[in-house]
Design a protein that fits this description.
alpha+beta, endonuclease, three-stranded antiparallel sheet, tRNA_endonuc-like_dom_sf, 103 residues, Restrct_endonuc-II-like, 3 strands, hydrolase, nucleic acid binding, Trna Endonuclease, Chain: A, domain 1, single chain
Length: 103
């Protein structure tokens, strides 16, 4: 996993994609340590993407990984707008429909 550099270290700055991948990997490891089972990552369907799909027992869990350096504007959870929530729900429904009842 790529390490996220301290502020001001421009020689080691990660691209947004690299930083996103690093946070998604960290989120996956944390969820697995809590007993969830990994199903898929970066699932793209028409109109959206889901960062992680996990299983918690019989429950399918759709995960949007967000990171903010500061809670000044409400933190990561506040950055998931109503529009983004609708896109996630739509994408999750499409993914579930493609699973032919296996979930």
């Amino acid at each position: 996993m790529a390490q996220i550099p301290a502020r001001g270290d421009c020689s080691r700055q990660l691209t947004r994609k690299q930083a996103g991948d690093a946070w998604e990997a960290a989120a996956r490891r944390w969820l697995e340590s809590k007993g969830l089972r990994f199903i898929a990552a970066n699932v793209r369907e028409r109109g959206g993407e889901i960062d992680l799909i996990m299983r918690d027992g019989k429950t399918t869990v759709f995960v949007e990984v967000r990171y903010r350096r500061s809670g000044l504007y409400g933190g990561a959870a506040a950055s998931v707008t109503r529009s983004k929530q609708h896109k996630l729900l739509h994408t999750a429904r499409l993914w579930l429909a493609r699973q032919n009842g296996s979930f």
